[in-house]
C-alpha cells in the first residue's frame, strides 16, 4: 500500500479541533479533492474523491477515542485506511496528524501512476487542505465551532466552494444543485446557511462519535 502523511498545528483547543475534523460530511467544505462523504449509518460512510480520476469507496469507523483519535478502513471500492490523531499542545493548540494508506488501482499501472506523481499530488493537496482547515478554525467565531453550522469552513479551492461536490453531498449540506445539467454542478455561494440564517437542514447526518452535539440518525 502507498502511505501518505500530513500534519498541522491548529491554534485551537483539542476538543474543538476534534469536533470539526471528525465530522466527515464537512470534508468537501475544506478539502479540494473530496467530492462527497455521506453517511450510511453511525459507523459507515460513502466517499467520492477526485485524485487522478474519480475514486469511490464505502468505509467503516475504527479505533475512535474522543478528542484523541479517529480512524476508518474501506469495506468496498478503493482499498484504503486512515488514522487521524489529535495531540493537545501548550497554549490551547492542537497537533493534527493524518496518515492515509491506499492500494493504487489497476495493478501495476496504478503503482506506476502513483510513483510518477499521483501519490505526491495527493500528499501535497492533503497538506494544503490541512493548512486551510487550521487557518479557518483559527479565524472562526468562538461560537461557530459546531459541525452542523460550519459554513465558515469554505475556502476558494474547496470542492464545495468550486461546485465539484455530488448531488448527494449537496443534499446533506442544504445546497441545491443544478438538476438540468448531467452530473455537473454550478458554482455556488460559500455559505450553506438557510435563508433564515440558521444551519442547513441535514436530516441524514448521524451523531458524530465523541462529540457533544446530538445529530439525528437516518
Please give the structural blueprint.
Blueprint: E1 2-10, H1 14-21, H2 27-30, E2 34-39, E3 44-50, E4 54-61, E5 69-77, E6 80-89, E7 93-102, H3 107-139, H4 167-173
Antiparallel strand pairs: 1-7, 2-3, 3-4, 4-5, 5-6, 6-7
Question: Would you summarize the structure shown here?
Answer:
With 218 residues, the protein is an alpha+beta fold. It has helices at 14-21, 27-30, 107-139, 167-173, and strands spanning 2-10, 34-39, 44-50, 54-61, 69-77, 80-89, 93-102.
Strand content range: 25-35%
Structural class: alpha+beta
Q: Helicity range of the residues?
A: 10-25%
Helix and strand run: EHHEEEEEEHH
- Tally of domains: 1
Question: Kindly, what is the distance between the CA atoms of the first and last residues, rounded to a whole number of angstroms?
Answer: 33 Å
Q: Unreliable stretches, pLDDT < 50, 5 or more residues?
A: 179-218
CATH third-level topology = Alpha-D-Glucose-1,6-Bisphosphate, Chain A, domain 4
Name the CATH superfamily classification. START domain
Number of strands: 7
